[in-house]
Write a structure and sequence with these properties.
Order of helices and strands: EHEEHHE
Largest sheet: 4 strands, antiparallel
CATH architecture: 2-Layer Sandwich
Number of helices: 3
Radius of gyration: 14 Å
Structural class: alpha+beta
Strand order of the largest sheet: 2-3-1-4
């Protein structure tokens, strides 16, 4: 059973450009570390401080292996540090979803 990680970010609305840069960096890092990146989504109209990401994995075990690889990846760690240094992410929540077949 595959699992999709839904990440909800609360952003500093005055630092959305930095979040966009952060998101673009994940386009190569996430697949390299084993995730199937569906995408990052940012505000266009309406609420200006919430963004989302969706990443699919074969299983929760595959997600855990991905997290371990990510902590060892120089580009991934540099992107985490970029976020910490610039403080554009105020909070993030993760929800693990499974596809419902109708």
């Amino acid at each position: 059973m595959s699992v999709t990680v839904f990440i909800r970010y609360q952003l500093d609305p005055f630092k959305r450009a930095q979040f966009a840069e952060y998101s673009k960096r994940w386009l190569t890092i996430i697949p390299k570390c084993g995730g199937d990146l569906i995408g990052y989504f940012m505000p266009h109209e309406g609420t200006n401080n919430i963004a989302f990401a969706l990443i699919t994995f074969e299983s929760l075990a595959a997600y855990e292996a991905y997290r371990a690889r990510l902590r060892q990846d120089a580009d991934g760690m540099a992107n985490f540090h970029f976020a910490e240094e610039n403080k554009f992410i105020l909070a993030e929540e993760r929800t693990f979803l499974r596809k419902v077949v109708l």
